[in-house]
Amino acid sequence: MRILGYSFTLLATVILLTGCIYGDIDKRQRDSITIGAARYCEANHYSYCEIYIQCYRDFLDQINAGSYYSLGLMLPLSAIQDLDNKQDSQKTMDKIYANLKDNEKKDRKDLSLDDSYLLFPHNRCSSIINAKPYDISNYQEAIQQKIMRNKLNNK
User: Fold this and answer.
1) pTM reported for the whole predicted model
2) Could you tell me the sign of the dihedral formed by the alpha carbons of 152, 34, 94, 67, in that order?
3) Is residue 47 a contact partner of residue 128, using CB atoms and an 8 Å limit?
4) Residue 6: strand, helix, or coil
């Protein structure tokens, strides 16, 4: 069967492969964020890092189940992904929060919301490792709405 000059099998193959690639990207991004949270925890010599990391990932999955990362979220991700230095890893959450505040000053609420998506799981799990939470109260309603939409979409 030909559709616009292309064979149907070629078109089906491309569509199927594209779906697989995007699924891998989501998984790699989730893994990368989780690794960044693990580095943060271990660099600060917190106890119970394994529990913190699992908690962090669970809350991250609630926020972004299925449709992970917007383009704006790629910028705060660089704060996590590029941290191989132990000293930088200790300040990962501080850098994300500073980025959130900087975006607020620039009136970039969309980017600030993306930053808050990375801080939300930390705030929920920070008591496990006795770390400081960050003030993202301005974004709480949007985060809760996103969690509710994701729950409804997953039913």
Assistant:
1) 0.72
2) negative
3) no
4) strand
In DSSP notation, 25-36 reads HHHHHHHHHHHH
List all residues 6 or more positions away from 117 whose beta carbon is below 8 Å from its beta carbon: 60, 63, 64, 73, 143, 146
Q: Which residue has the higher pLDDT, 21 or 104?
A: 104
Q: What DSSP designation does 3 have?
A: E
Query: By CB neighbour count within 10 A (0-12 exposed, 13-18 middle, 19+ buried), where does 148 fall?
Result: exposed
Distance, CA of 142 to CA of 56 (rounded, Å)? 19
Q: Helix, strand, or coil here: 2?
A: strand
Q: Which two tokens stand for residue 106?
A: 């620039």
User: Residue 132: which of 35, 50, 44, 43 has the closest Cα?
Assistant: 44
